[in-house]
Write a structure and sequence with these properties.
CATH class of the largest domain in chain A: Alpha Beta
Number of domains of chain A: 2
Number of helices of chain B: 14
Structural class of chain B: mainly alpha
Oligomer: heterodimer
Shape of chain A: globular
Bound molecules: adenosine-5'-triphosphate, magnesium ion
Number of helices of chain A: 18
CATH superfamily of the largest domain in chain A: P-loop containing nucleotide triphosphate hydrolases
Largest sheet of chain B: 2 strands, antiparallel
Subcellular location (chain A): Cell membrane
CATH topology of the largest domain in chain A: Rossmann fold
Helix content of chain B: over 70%
Helix content of chain A: 25-40%
Shape of chain B: globular
Domain ABC transporter (chain A): 9-245, 265-506
Largest sheet of chain A: 6 strands, mixed
GO molecular function (chain A): ATP binding; ATP hydrolysis activity
Number of strands of chain A: 22
Radius of gyration of chain B: 20 Å
Organism (chain A): Portibacter lacus
InterPro entries (chain A): AAA+_ATPase (IPR003593), ABC_carbohydrate_import_ATPase (IPR050107), ABC_transporter-like_ATP-bd (IPR003439), ABC_transporter-like_CS (IPR017871), P-loop_NTPase (IPR027417)
Distance between the termini of chain A: 58 Å
Chain lengths: 507, 323
Amino acid sequence: MKEQRETILQAKSITKKFGKVTVLDDVNIDVHQGKVNVIIGENGAGKSTLMKILSGVYSDYDGEILLNNKVVNFSNPKEAMENGIAIMHQELNLIPYLSITANIFLGREITNQFGILSTNQMHDKVDELLKRLDCNLSPRTLVSELRVGEQQLVEIAKALLEDAKVIIMDEPTSAISDSEVEVLFKIIKNLKTQDVGILYISHKLDELFTIADRFIGLRDGKMVGIIEDVRNTGKEDLIKLMVGRNIENRFQKEILPIGDDLLGVENLNLIQADNKARYLLKDINFSLKKGEVLGIFGLMGAGRTELLETLFGLYPKLSTCKLTIEKKEVNISSVQDAILNGLALVPENRKEDGLVLQMDVSKNISMVSTDRVIRNGFLNKHLETNLARKYIDSLHIKLSSEKQLARNLSGGNQQKVVLAKWLANQPKVLFLDEPTRGIDVNAKNEIYHLISQLASKGLGLIVVSSELPEIMAISDRILILSQGKITGEFNRTSANEEAIMQAATST
Amino acid sequence: MTTVKSTLIKFQSIIALFVMCVVLIILSDKFFTVENGWNIARQISINVCISVGMTLVILTKGIDLSVGSMLALSGAVAAGLLKYGLEIPSMNTYVGFTVFGAILAGLAVGGGLGVFNGWMITNFKVPSFVATLAMLTIARGATMLWTGGFPITGLGDHFAFIGTGWFLGIPMPVWITVIVVILAVILTTKTKFGRHIYAIGGNESAARLSGININKVKIWVYTIAGILAAVGGIILTSRLDSAQPNAGMSYELDAIAAVVIGGTSLSGGRGSIMGTVQGALIIGVLNSGLVLLNVSPFWQQIIKGLVILLAVILDRLNYANED
Ligand SMILES: Nc1ncnc2c1ncn2[C@@H]1O[C@H](COP(=O)(O)OP(=O)(O)OP(=O)(O)O)[C@@H](O)[C@H]1O
Ligand SMILES: [Mg+2]
């Protein structure tokens, strides 16, 4: 009887197909109130799809959804929201040039009898909501001025306004800093005491143990198990639930002989576009050898992404730098120059900067190396398909065919397509910006092995990551950036977490 | 079931075209004649030329409102040069123009205006809507200046051949248009340049990071749109044997309509040349059908507007089904 009351939302025999592809196959899950219900599964297992069904994004599916034991069928997210189910997508859906209040009350504005907005009343209400979240932002702040973590709080506040009983969070921690994660977790704990049921998805297994109350495993669109006893569960158990077998989970890059000078960076400076007196990067000097993996670690805002982008020719007017490639001085003032000199950059945001979502996968893969799929001056379908298949196979990209649109791939597989696109051009130097963000354990391992393998072929790699264990596992050498300056350098023997964190927080 | 549906969707504009033709054949005995067929084809050809350029622009997520004015100016320049040549009093020189030379000059004017559009849009980041709106009035003003506000007529038989002549039993404008369409289809589907157009429209930032020279591609796209507007202008001038100062007024609207009816998305990156050709056919058949049926011009405009809406709504529904 007690079980009955605890379950607030139930999915019964949910099956979802896209065309001929079955993405969810007879899935049953239940969401307990006042608990963090974690869904785990590999990339493409169907987690996001299931969440979209529960929150009314997809309304055609087989099976039933029960909310408080009543069958519901939401035709859109608004309806789901009104019934107490809110979703925080990984891509936040806020309007940048409106205030926090305007965003929270969007579509539900309070007006007086003349139809004029009761702004103060709404601000007060939002203020109260934000206070409940221990957040002291002003309700009048524009969303465009908020960091990603703060924007998430706004999404949560929005859910609270509707009195949400279930809040779905799809990879909420993939783009926020550690301190923001802490804030989020505190809020989640707080929501639990208010009997809200949380559905939580993440590929960061370590964080799950601090937050999860139960685990639900999805594999290839099927529900494969539930773990209720979190305390006696280890990382290996989770991996086994997701992947179906044990996998090697402690990666450490093997030490390989390192070759000649590949890339030399001297006196790199970058100034801010709208404030020329401010340096985003100052006096950066380092070098990279063939076969070397150089990790770059730093906190959010340290300038890691900007460093890669500057080297890649994105800010020719704002930056100065003396760059040598294979001991020859080169001038890179555009992305085209960078590519001609053998550089490649896998950007941090795959959807915004990596993929053309409405193009098929094969076209995305050949985007940079179009010349390789041209025969007699014209694009050649056959060559293009072959090129795509080669990388789909070698990177184990999960899809129904290379003609599938990039938008219809799961997050992790999209990331692999971006990687494929650059590998297809056979670069000499590969910059990877957060390469494993949103990628499952298994695929993470694959990417680590790939990095290692590319290095052994003589490529030089620069990897930016905000996950310290990851940086330590894959790098031969680690540079620490803090506020646009290099504040530390470690080789793999001298690297330890404490020293690195200290360098990353020093100024 | 789903395959039947998806085939229906795929050939939706062809089906619409077919239905329209059948209705017109039933309602009017003048519609289904060889003469009328060529008539329609000739009328449509100008819109197809312009619409092909417009398609490229819209695929990059831009818009070109200046095609009608560019058409007028390049037609007028070609006509003026052909008839009067070029006199430069200060240098005391006079240059006469052959038909071929005048045509080249007209095309050069279209291309030049297109380059200017592209340059404004890429280099100064003027939104394409604004840049080409400005060009719409600039080029129209320039046409008025060049012609003094009066038509330039009497351009000779050689020039008239382009718009009114026949070759192998097919009107010249149709030949020109078919060649333009074939080249554009190859360009968009088979070349690197075409691929880059789609990539830019689909995600400009990803395209830039993939090493695509966005500015170069865009300038070319607006240049091609200008040249194709000039092609239309020359066909029109030749057909009428006269360059009218107000030629091509609001042609941009018919072109945009053809592109949109043909299923190209105004948000860029999705669409095709053949879609646009079908869209232009639908508009052309509609136009001439309504005239044949003696529908009042006022109603014609209303009906055309409704057809555009209907086409876009259908398109939306299809895409809503897809995801
Ligand atoms: N609109 C769609 N059309 C066709 N296939 C789709 C569509 N959306 C998702 N898929 C497919 O469904 C599968 C599951 O995708 P989903 O996004 O649910 O995975 P996920 O478990 O969230 O993965 P990740 O951890 O990478 O985010 C994938 O193989 C994907 O290719
Ligand atoms: Mg997902």
